[in-house]
Amino acid sequence: MPKWENKRTDSVRMMEIQTMQESQEQFHGLIRERFAKVALSQENRFPVGPENAKTLGYDPDEIENLATSVTESFCGVGNPFGLGELAPGQNVLDLGSGAGLDSILAARKVGPSGKVIGVDMTPEMIDKAKQNVDALWLENTEFRLGDIEALPLEDTSVDVVITNGVFNLCTDKPKVLAEVFRVLRPGGRIQMADILLHDDVTPEEVATKGSWSD
Ligand SMILES: C[S@@+](CC[C@H](N)C(=O)[O-])C[C@H]1O[C@@H](n2cnc3c(N)ncnc32)[C@H](O)[C@@H]1O
Predict the structure, then answer these.
(1) Residue 117: which CATH number?
(2) Which atom in ligand 1 lies closest to the alpha carbon of residue 171?
């Protein structure tokens, strides 16, 4: 292959990578916009709030005992706690922690000798989660603003990863899983609640929904 052709291929590749990065940045911008609205209670296009949590199998008493500011922005799609028990003393990571409902429930289960870290890329969600945890005087819970495709956590520092309704929003799923494996200790596990696209859903139905989370 002539040298100029090699150069051309490289520049096309660079343009493709640049375009992918730009479209990922745009996509992240749209996600932040949407979930900022959920944090500010301005979104009603998909199930949000305490009734949604109860429908998804959370203990109704546990949900009713939480403040409205914790439950009103809950936008999970399942119940990650149904997949395994958390034990006192464990370190838990909540991927895409939103307003903090799952992190708070996890913090109560792991107790003062354990720790919970929530990571979310929407500043309004992180602010709300921090306020929620401060109001409860929960000292074993921390929230970090960040992208779960590049986790702001050390290697092998986590016993259990929980996540609810977030993986479907990630453009680079292998990268998220690689990050999960990086931060998990040997023998650790992930408890994921998420939505799946079944084969019998047509492209027309997907187009009509017009939403990532429906
Ligand atoms: C459907 S909500 C679920 C929030 C929370 N898990 C709950 O159950 O209420 C999705 C959350 O994931 C966050 N998110 C989406 N993609 C993310 C990414 N790549 N990195 C970090 N957070 C992300 C959004 O900001 C939003 O708060």
Answers:
(1) 3.40.50.150
(2) 19
